[in-house]
Amino acid sequence: MKKLLLLVFSVVLSVYSVIALSNVNSRVVQIGISTSGTFSDYEDFLIKTISDLQGALTSRYSLRVMFLNDEELAKEIKENRLDLVIAPSSFARTYILQGARDIASLDHENSTNTNRAESSVFLVDGERTKATTLQEMQGKTVVTSKEFGLSGLASLLSTIAEQLKVKPDNFFKDIIYVPANLSHVLRTLKEGKADLAVVPACSLERYSQQTTDDTGWLRILLPRQDESLSCMHSAAPFPGITVISMPSLSPYESKTITTALLGMDETDGMTWGVATDFSAIDRILQNLRNGPWQKDFSQTITEFAKAYWKWFAAAAAFILLLILHSIRSEFIVRKRTEELSKALEQQKLLHKEANLANRRYEKLQKISVIGQMSSLFAHELRQPLNAINCYANGLRRFLKNPEKAKAFIDKGIEGIEAEAERASAIVEQVRNYAKNKSSRQNQQDLKEILQRSIADFQTTSVGDMPVHFMDHGGDHVIRGEEFELELIFTNLLRNAAQAQSHLKSAVAWMEVSNVGPYVQIEIWDKGPALSEEKIKEISLIGDSTKAEGMGLGLSIIRTLVQAHSGEIRFSKSEQGGLKVTILLPLITSKNNQQEEQNAQNNKSSRRRSFR
């Protein structure tokens, strides 16, 4: 019925225009009306609007009305064939650069603000999906109608671009377009062919009033609350149907038409008002790269190059300079690299020569050490040989009465064997020094070495000087050569005994403790008091504390301590005599200590009990 009325109205206007054209002074106003979107909801009101406009204009004017879809309307606007356009508000913003100006926008009973008269609503099947966000709709299928215009897919895609900050072009798996009939849209959604439906705001309310179809299964996605728009909606509201004047309309004609529109009485809850805020429309067009923003995103490479050729030329020159600089830098780097390589080879050669010189120096140093130690080793050998001689003399006496002296004979033989083994070890150590086979990387239990040193000293020394041994606890595991370590501490005890030879009751103290990463061994006696100058001489040059001594013993001990990465210090003891402090680096890994100790236990070594 409405379409029939629209047809009759168009015929009447055409007849009127033909009659008006008979007057040579008549002005024909070309009016284009969009039939897309919610046109059917406002059809009666728009027909009344055209009738009122014809009445407002004088007899000198006639109206020629064309009902067009969006594509046809856009073509007429671009070809400047229209004076007045009645279409969705997006047309006013899309063709603003062509001189389009809004003069009035539609108000209706569901809106209290002309700026927020229309929107769109996103619908899902509440019985089939629990989705509550647009993110969950990615990769799904959406159903709408092309004739819904800005209140359809455009509003949805703009919302996706704004909220999710993504390009909406390929957001959905598929888009189904149906006729601009809400029943078609809802049926497609209900049948499961689509996951989301987009329809104009207020259309669902009108549909519920006009039909008895059940809509309880529908659920609104992203529902909004806006006091200006009482209908259910999901997108930001924007101005509705807008009357747009084109540049061909004179100021007088524009004023007359505007006055007539704003003076119209309300019809079916609708009237014309003035919209002042089109920012929501602008955001939609910008997000979708349409209207004034379309050119910004669709400039061809040629246009862009023409506009910015100077910058391109500057950038190309800069890149060329960078390439030249890179080539030059590469040449310089290659040249410097060759020079550095030659210098490195020269340095390696010098380092090799230095290593050879160091080895020669170490060999000479070893020979020097052996020369210093020869007198000490001679003295060391004299001790076991004297002990062997004493054991032999004792055995000779006991052999006169062998039955009573069997136990003493066995002990004497064991003593001779032990001293002979010790003498052999001294000789073997001298050979190792000569052959450079001395190893100081073996793990040693320093406590055992100290106890053996005390036992060896008391076995071979003349007299009976007690040694008070104190251990403050902890694992005293170090790396070193067993014989050299025994030699250090045995000679220090022997020096302590000789320093107290004038005393009737000589005594020495030995104390061991862990100090940080080192094990500290202190040996002192109550020998004659030493002056600070004498202590300084001993510390600097290893001078002997004995009047007849040559200082070789302390010098060798210092060399052996330093060879074990240790440190030796000399000071005055509280009893007045010399106090020697030795620091040797500890081994912290107990596992390595146990492995080395097990390997060392498998070797044949002498074991003497502490007396």
TrEMBL record:
<feature type="transmembrane region" description="Helical">
    <location>
        <begin position="308"/>
        <end position="327"/>
    </location>
</feature>
<dbReference type="InterPro" id="IPR003661">
    <property type="entry name" value="HisK_dim/P_dom"/>
</dbReference>
<keyword id="KW-0597">Phosphoprotein</keyword>
<dbReference type="Pfam" id="PF02518">
    <property type="entry name" value="HATPase_c"/>
</dbReference>
<dbReference type="InterPro" id="IPR036890">
    <property type="entry name" value="HATPase_C_sf"/>
</dbReference>
<dbReference type="GO" id="GO:0005524">
    <property type="term" value="F:ATP binding"/>
</dbReference>
<keyword id="KW-0067">ATP-binding</keyword>
<keyword id="KW-0902">Two-component regulatory system</keyword>
<keyword id="KW-0547">Nucleotide-binding</keyword>
<feature type="region of interest" description="Disordered">
    <location>
        <begin position="591"/>
        <end position="611"/>
    </location>
</feature>
<feature type="compositionally biased region" description="Low complexity">
    <location>
        <begin position="591"/>
        <end position="602"/>
    </location>
</feature>
<keyword id="KW-0472">Membrane</keyword>
<keyword id="KW-0808">Transferase</keyword>
<dbReference type="InterPro" id="IPR005467">
    <property type="entry name" value="His_kinase_dom"/>
</dbReference>
<keyword id="KW-0812">Transmembrane</keyword>
<dbReference type="InterPro" id="IPR003594">
    <property type="entry name" value="HATPase_dom"/>
</dbReference>
<dbReference type="Pfam" id="PF12974">
    <property type="entry name" value="Phosphonate-bd"/>
</dbReference>
<keyword id="KW-1133">Transmembrane helix</keyword>
<dbReference type="Pfam" id="PF00512">
    <property type="entry name" value="HisKA"/>
</dbReference>
<dbReference type="InterPro" id="IPR036097">
    <property type="entry name" value="HisK_dim/P_sf"/>
</dbReference>
<keyword id="KW-0418">Kinase</keyword>
<dbReference type="InterPro" id="IPR004358">
    <property type="entry name" value="Sig_transdc_His_kin-like_C"/>
</dbReference>
<dbReference type="GO" id="GO:0000155">
    <property type="term" value="F:phosphorelay sensor kinase activity"/>
</dbReference>
<feature type="domain" description="Histidine kinase">
    <location>
        <begin position="376"/>
        <end position="588"/>
    </location>
</feature>
<protein>
    <recommendedName>
        <fullName>histidine kinase</fullName>
        <ecNumber>2.7.13.3</ecNumber>
    </recommendedName>
</protein>
